[in-house]
Amino acid sequence: MKLDRTTIAIGVVTVALLAASPVLPKWAMSLLNVSLCYGTVVLGMMLLMRTGLVSFGHGLYYCLGAYAAGTVDQMLKLPDMALMVAAGAVVTGIVAAILGLLLARYRDIFFAMLSLAFSMILYGLLVKSSALGSTDGFNISAKTLFGVALVDDARRYAGFGITVVLTTLSAFALNLYLRSHRGRLAEAIRDNELRVEYMGASVRATIHLHYVISAVLAGIGGALMAINIGHIDPEMTYWPQSGEFVFIAILSGTGNVFAPLGGALVFETIRSFAYEYSPNTWQMVLGITMLIVMIFLPGGLWSLIQRRKPA
Asked: Is residue 231 within a helix (H) or strand (E), and if so which, with residue range?
């Protein structure tokens, strides 16, 4: 496949963020870190939404990715960023491959509620597990990257760098997948499953694959968040966390892989400044934002970009 504008833009953004990291203030780097981690999770949700499915329980894989990364550090004594992210991706992929066999049979509200149920089951298990810190969770510290020891600012820059690279690589891979024959089935399944079956494609197998892909992306996002924040707890799988991902997905739209990344940045920026200047009503600010978007931009923020494209 030839390079499209999205692929080129991903490369430009990657280079720009990495080049700017030495001069970014700590607050800006922290804001971008959280936005990119959330954006990675919502990339997977975008794939599900294109398939006609909405998950209310993607906090399950976000949390699993974080706890897998933490386990590598605390129990295996391997505080390497690359190993921690790899563990998050592998664990979430395995769990999603198993649960997806069941979830691929359901649609609409049944899919959404069942995914939420699995997320809350994990929450219940974690709060009862004293070995994993119960409700308090535990701290982790990624001290190396590919075996190279990191200290102080180098660790912070490395955490930001690996987040930028993995998030943009995830966006690149998903963009490539969406342009493939299998990827184009997503919208066809959303519109008419029966016709897709008549074409000879397996709807259930495609949904299962998309569910696994979305879970792995959520696991990577969770592992990256754990590395950058340095703490994990069961709240990462509680229903409000999954609700935030759905909020960002609706806010963003599904028109392009940049939509979740931009939507996550807008969401986190509004939340941060609203909490700073209006700590007692920041939830209302987010609610008003969502209301405005749903009324005037039902296709999400990305529809603003689409309107500017020449016919």
From this structure: strand 231-232
CA separation for the pair 82, 224 (Å, rounded): 10
How far apart CA 245 and CA 58 sit, in angstroms, is 8
pTM of the model: 0.93
**Total count of residues recorded for the chain:** 311
Contact 99, 219 (CB under 8 A): no
Closest CA to 292 of 248, 240, 251: 251
Q: What is residue 13's predicted lDDT score, i.e. its pLDDT?
A: 93
Cα 231 from Cα 219, distance rounded (Å): 15
Tokens of 259: 């939509």
In the predicted structure, residue 309 carries a pLDDT above the cut 60: no
In eight-state DSSP terms, residue 299 is T
Q: Give the tens place of pLDDT for each residue, 196-225.
A: 888 888 999 999 999 999 999 999 999 999
Q: Quick one: which of 214, 210, 211 has its CA closest to 185? A: 210
Compute φ and ψ for 232, nearest 5 degrees: -135, 150
Q: Give 141-146's long-range contacts (Cβ < 8 A, gap of 24+).
A: 141/73, 141/79, 141/230, 142/73, 142/79, 142/80, 142/81, 142/84, 142/227, 143/79, 143/80, 144/79, 144/80, 144/81, 145/80, 145/81, 145/82, 146/80, 146/82
Look at residue 286 and tell me whether its pLDDT is greater than 50: yes
The closest of 68, 73, 179 to 126, measured between CA atoms, is: 68
pLDDT of residue 38: 96
The per-residue pLDDT of the chain, averaged, comes to 90
The CA-atom distances, in angstroms, between 142 and each of 110, 165, 225, 296, 305 are 39, 17, 11, 43, 38
Residue ranges per structural domain of the chain: 5-238
